[in-house]
Amino acid sequence: MSMTRYIHPVFAHAGDAEASSLVISTESLGGRRSDMKLTGPLPADWSVNLSRDFAARGVSLQNGYARRIDSDQWTVQLEVEQSLADSAGPEGLVRAIYSKVRPPVVEPALLDCELRESKSFGGCLELEVDAWDAVGLLAAVLGCAASAGLLAVEMILETQDDCAFHHLGLKDRGDAVPSLRQRRALDRGLKRLGKI
Known about the structure:
The protein is built from 5 helices and 9 strands; from the N terminus they run βββαββααββαββα. The protein is α+β, with helices and mostly antiparallel strands. It has 2 domains: about 5-100, Alpha-Beta Plaits, CATH 3.30.70; about 110-195, Alpha-Beta Plaits (2-Layer Sandwich), CATH 3.30.70. A 9-stranded antiparallel sheet has the order 1-2-3-5-4-8-9-7-6, with helices on one face. The radius of gyration is 16 Å and the shape is globular. Mean pLDDT is about 85; it is low at about 10-20.
């Protein structure tokens, strides 16, 4: 097993003299599996951008966890199939986090989907999705949320026996409690993705 640690300076705004650091660690788990950890500042739409980049490159998310711990501070751990160190490297991951890559069209086979209100994070929507695992599934779900003006503040991702179980905490892009209009838009988008 090999491990790579990379520290990338992140400037909050153009012209800021002070930077905080995004720490990226990748560890080979053998074969085509890697464990990726990110800690530090990330843009609000990082999860949409990264999942779309993964889908475009055929990277499969196996398991993971992401949680916003402050306004732009995150702790992320993702297990992926395909060596990140060989395919993108830390600089490639930083580019992916800020990219706007459009993923290939994915027709997810949703088995079950539940959307409910939560008091977590000062008020958010919790979305639970059970689906047949497919490269690009998370990108499709996060893209649907983004179309409704919602971004993830927490993600728990699991894959077992070709089934994916995703639990997402979603907030308004402006960090407000999601509106009824946004919830309905998300419902409509999820129905277009698959049978719910």
